[in-house]
Amino acid sequence: MSSSVLRRFLVELGEAGLVHQTGESPYALTTPGREAFGALRPLVSQADVLPVAGQ
Q1: What is the DSSP letter of 17?
Q2: What is the pLDDT of residue 53?
Q3: Cα–Cα distance measured from residue 31 to residue 35, given in angstroms and rounded to the nearest whole number
Q4: What element of type H or E holds 20?
Q5: pLDDT at position 54, please?
Q6: What is the largest CA-CA distance in the chain?
Q7: pTM of the model
Q8: DSSP 26-47
Q9: pLDDT in tens for each of the 55 residues of the chain?
Q10: Is the dihedral of CA 6, 47, 41, 32 positive or negative?
Q11: How far apart are CA 48 and CA 32, in angstroms?
Q12: Exposed, middle or buried: residue 14 (CB in 10 Å: 0-12, 13-18, 19+)?
């Protein structure tokens, strides 16, 4: 992933209130970001084991 694409994603996540820039690290999850991560984590693990349609 190019740095410009990564930057665009981080800006969009910031605008959505899921990440913010901090003095300690470049970016950190906000409370809603941590909640979204927790909710989506089981889906990501399932996506790794489910077959892809058409394959």
Answers
A1: T
A2: 67
A3: 6
A4: strand 19-20
A5: 63
A6: 46
A7: 0.68
A8: S-EE-HHHHHHHHHHHHHHHHH
A9: 898 999 899 999 999 999 999 887 688 999 999 999 999 988 877 776 767 666 6
A10: positive
A11: 24
A12: middle
H or E stretch including 19?
strand 19-20
Place of tokens 């979204």: 36
Tokens 């003095």 — which residue? 23
Residues 6 and 27: their CA atoms lie apart, in Å, by 12
**SS3 (DSSP) at 4:** helix
Give which of 2, 43, 1, 36 is closest to 17, Cα–Cα: 36
At which residue do the structure tokens 């901090």 appear?
A: 22
Contact 51, 43 (CB under 8 A): no
